[in-house]
Design goal:
Structural class: alpha/beta
Strand order of the largest sheet: 6-7-8-3-9-10
Distance between the termini: 46 Å
CATH class: Alpha Beta
CATH superfamily: P-loop containing nucleotide triphosphate hydrolases
Number of domains: 1
Strand content: 15-25%
Order of helices and strands: EEEHEEHEHHHEHEHEEHH
CATH topology: Rossmann fold
Number of strands: 10
CATH architecture: 3-Layer(aba) Sandwich
Helix content: 25-40%
Radius of gyration: 18 Å
Length: about 250
């Protein structure tokens, strides 16, 4: 399996109540790209991410990861290459200790040197000191680092993150941005934090009502106030005029 692209073609998905979450979405992401997925609440961002690792199977259309279609029979292979960090870290941390959470995936796959791999993953996110801590006693920032380690220990080619900065204080948010900036993975980040998108992603996709409305360079899209407002978004704080002096 090659990990050099993600190709989504005419992807459609509706929830059981008939709500259309994705309405014919198509795009391609090349190996090594960092791409932000942005849009107002209910735009389809999280639903799209769940399709990338097979948590949701398309009603129609296709998701192709490096030449392998995301189907039920391919889920095991897909999930070895696509690491997903959920919006709520409590959905990912369920073992008595952080170390056991990080070891869960490698042990289930029968990998060797699991202890060393776990420590390396925790060190890579600055969380080695949490190895013996119970997840329920961690701060939000610590939980997010631990959840990220549970994904990185599997050495994915593609890193998918859903609202990674949600609930973090300013220092923890900056630490996370600096951490993610150092990763060479293909990164797909769904976020309401447009400043984070500016910092980490050279490309941005705007979703509106389940459709891909805009696809282009972050530095152009995220500085266009009219375009953002038309899609229910606002300029990132970093590019707004100063409320005191009026300068950029």
């Amino acid at each position: 399996m090659s990990h050099h692209f993600i190709r989504v073609t005419n992807l459609r998905y509706s929830y059981p109540d008939g709500t259309e979450a994705l309405t014919g979405v198509s795009f391609e992401i090349k190996h090594g790209e960092s791409v932000a997925i942005v849009g107002a609440n209910g735009a389809g961002k999280s639903t799209l991410l769940h399709h990338l690792n097979g948590s949701i199977v398309p009603h129609s259309g296709t998701v192709n990861i490096g030449g392998l279609l995301v189907t039920k029979k391919n889920l095991s292979a897909i999930r070895r290459h696509v690491g997903t960090v959920f919006a709520d870290p409590d959905d990912q941390l369920f073992m008595p200790t952080v170390g056991e959470d990080v070891a869960f995936g490698p042990l289930n796959l029968g990998l060797e040197n699991v202890h060393e791999k776990c420590l390396a993953a925790l060190k890579s996110v600055g969380a080695a000191h949490l190895v013996n801590r119970p997840p329920f006693r961690l701060s939000t920032g610590e939980k997010r680092r631990a959840a990220l380690a549970t994904v990185l220990v599997m050495s994915p080619d593609i890193l998918v993150l859903d609202e990674p900065a949600s609930g973090l204080d300013p220092k923890a948010r900056r630490n996370l941005i600096d951490l993610l900036a150092g990763f060479e993975h293909t990164k797909i980040i769904a976020t309401h934090d447009l400043d984070m998108a500016m910092d980490l992603c050279e490309r941005t996709l705007i979703f509106t009502s389940g459709a891909l409305a805009v696809d282009g360079l972050s530095r152009e899209i995220l500085t266009d106030a009219v375009l953002l407002e038309a899609n229910g978004l606002e300029l990132p704080l970093s590019v707004r005029a100063c409320p005191v002096c009026g300068r950029s």
